[in-house]
Structure formats: structure tokens, C-alpha cells
Design brief:
The chain has 212 residues and is α/β, with parallel strands linked by helices. The chain is 30% helix and 22% strand.
Length: 212
Amino acid sequence: MRLRNIKGAEQFIADSKYVIQNPEDYLGKWNTFFENDHPLHIEIGMGKGKFIHTLASQNPSVNYLGIEMYSSVLYRAIEKRQEMDLPNLYFIRMDAKNLCDVFCNGEVDRIYLNFSDPWPKERHAKRRLTSPLFLERYHIILSKNGTICFKTDNRNLFDYSVETIENTSSWKLKDVSYDLHNSPYAEENVMTEYEEKFSSKGMPIHRLVAYR
């Protein structure tokens, strides 16, 4: 469920030093933005940012970009960022369909997809972040050994994602779990806001990793 519109959110985002206003300018040269050659990890649809803030604080030698298209959600993530000293974390406000305008071939080392919109109607299937169309985009921007880490509480979306990835010639699956919190992968898991809410109600969390 998305946040209600926050008055002044768009201007707040436009004025924030933590939001990259011209991400296209760094196509193929994100190392110059961060001023280092550390791996680049992105989260698409980061929500209010708990997950990516936690990762950035735990892994200072990794650069993180949080991508979110909803202003009121990004507003909350920026508020959190203002309270933390994380030089390896910045945000981009954009639609994920434009990824290839911002990242060049092999520039990203990992993509996180957490609790993405399931777009349950079949006519909207191409909007799912694990659709063949998006997998093609990820294939372009991910490095040779890059990975996609996907988590959701939505079983239908997860089944769709597993089937879609298995039916491509470019991708393979590993670490697939239909109950993440009772799996061998639970210890290393970092939870999102949604994940905490869903798991507290006893709902199983599904997780997979895709690679080439």
C-alpha cells in the first residue's frame, strides 16, 4: 500500500542533496559520482528505504542506489537518510523502465527487488519487475557475475517469476525458498518494512536469486 501524497514532496526531493537529479549524466561512469571503484548495487522500488539503509551501513565498500518512482515514498527514505552518515547511498526518482538510460552495459553488480507490485491482471504482466521485458533490461546493465535478488510475500507473483526465469535461456535460479524465514538463508536476510509487517502475521516470505 502506497503512502498518501505528502504536500511539498516533489520540491523536497528536488532540493535534496541525496537525490541525483540528473542520473543520465552518469551513464557508464557511476564510479566518478562515488569517486571510487566499489561494486554498485541498486534496489528497484525501495519503499521507505529500511532495507537499503541497513545494507549501506553494513557494507561501506559497496555503493548503493535506491530507485523509487513515488514521491511520497521517496520523501520518507530521504528523511531517514538525513539522519545517517552514509556516503555510499543515494537515490534516484525514476521509472524502472528507463534503467538503460542510466546504467550502461555491465555497470551494475546486483539488483534487489523487494515486495514489488504484483500487477495481478494478465494485461499488466509486462509491468511486473520480473517480466521478460525487465529481465532483458537487467541482462544489459548487470555485470557478467551480477545477480538479481527477489523477495515477495505474493505466491502468485513468485510462481510467475520462477517460471519466467526458468523459461529464459539467459538466466538460472539458485537459493529458491518458499519460506525464507525458516530456511538456511534466514540468517543473512535483511528485512524491509513490508517484510516485518507480513512476517509478524505469520505470512511466508518467498525468495530467489537469478544469475547468468
